[in-house]
Amino acid sequence: MGSILETTEVSSANVTTSANNGGGMKDSSHPYFLHPSDSPGMNLVNTNFDGRSYGGWRRSILIALSAKNKVGFIDGTCLAPSSETPDFKLWNRCNDMVISWLLNSLSREIGESVIYSKTAKHLWDDLEDRFGQSNGAKMYHLQKELSDLVQGSSNIAGYFTKIKRLWDELDTLNTHVNCSCECSCGGKMKMSKSLQDERLIKFLMGLNDTYASVKSSILMLSPLPTVGHAYSLLMQDEKQREVYVNSQFPGDSSSFMAANQSHPSQKFGNSDFQGKKNNLSCSYCKKHGHSVDKCYRIIGFPADFKFTRSKKFQAPVKNNAAYFDSEVGEQSIVNGSNGSQQLTQSQVSQLVQLLQQVKGGQTVSSNSDVVANVANCA
């Protein structure tokens, strides 16, 4: 009985020692440590790499792997231990996890070309050889984009984001820009200032003409500000423009409403206020809602009046109703009682020409046709 307990205690001690010393499973700073939330189906970046913009995708992958302490699996600093040691299984587990993360960050076509890579470093080196080399064609493409880039319909923030992305990608290709050597003569600082001034001029050249005054103010500063400072000044000017436009909008809206109120819709016609109509009574037709001087049975019904009953009481249409005698061709223009519409000189001339045609022998089919022609002239 005692021997069994001793054997169990020794076996447990060996497992605990292997886990603590070999794997670092409980130490979050150890490269072999995997968080419970880590899984093979994770995506390290928002956009999968499809062969374009390798520099930006590479930068995003390195940041994500560095946060998980797994960069050593792709740069070769975390080498595989001997297959006979307990650490090999832990290393192989983390290596497979990094391979899964990289495959999830690639497009289907590129992922199929590297799916049989045995280690994460081999997969990464393959991508570096195919897409990571700096060449003249890539620099030409970036410089061409920079020369053609203008603000257009973008705001200041959108335009600055586009141009800064191109600058950062160029910096990754130009190794001399990231030189870290010590310099005591100040030449490195002068080169950096010259590059900043060139980029400032390019940034200002692409702006729309609406920012001409702000560009002139920035160019008159001595020494020239950085691109970031110029961006801040332009953002302040853009915000000021938005405040000015918003402050003008309520006044324009009030003026528009006042103009509409000064010219009410004609659909109400010559009717009185609704509160007074109920107290009025016509002595001619014995109906309520209007007075005798507004009675349609006397002054004539409007052209758009809708009859609900018989039309036996329909009087001649008011407002510039015209009648012609087909026998003698004499003209008689009868104005409506309200006198709100009058014929213009050109309309009178058209009526005269129509009368001359009638006198010349042209037959008028009916008085209603002539009235329709006159109405069209009016």
Name the descriptors.
378 residues, mainly alpha, 4 domains, 2 strands, 2% strand, disordered N terminus
Please sum up the structure shown.
Residues 35-81 form the Retrotransposon Copia-like N-terminal domain. The chain has helices at 2-23, 54-67, 72-75, 87-104, 108-113, 120-131, 136-148, 156-173, 187-205, 212-219, 227-262, 274-277, 296-299, 345-359, 367-377, and strands spanning 321-324, 331-334. The protein is mostly helical.
Description:
The chain has helices at residues 2-23, 54-67, 72-75, 87-104, 108-113, 120-131, 136-148, 156-173, 187-205, 212-219, 227-262, 274-277, 296-299, 345-359, 367-377; strands at residues 321-324, 331-334. It folds into 4 domains: 14-131, no CATH class; 137-256, no CATH class; 271-316, no CATH class; 319-377, no CATH class. It is an all-alpha fold and 378 residues long.
Based on DSSP secondary structure assignment, what is the total number of beta strands?
Answer: 2
Please state the structural category.
Answer: mainly alpha
Helix fraction, binned, reads 40-55%
Task: Name the beta content range.
Answer: under 5%
The low-pLDDT segments are: 1-24, 254-258, 261-273, 311-340, 362-368
Number of domains: 4
The whole-number mean of residue pLDDT values reads 75
- Terminal CA distance reads 123 Å
Total of helices: 15
* Radius of gyration from the alpha-carbon trace, in angstroms: 44 Å
Per the principal axes of the C-alpha atoms, what is the gross shape?
elongated
Largest sheet: 2 strands, antiparallel
Order of helices and strands: HHHHHHHHHHHHHEEHH
Strand order of the largest sheet: 1-2
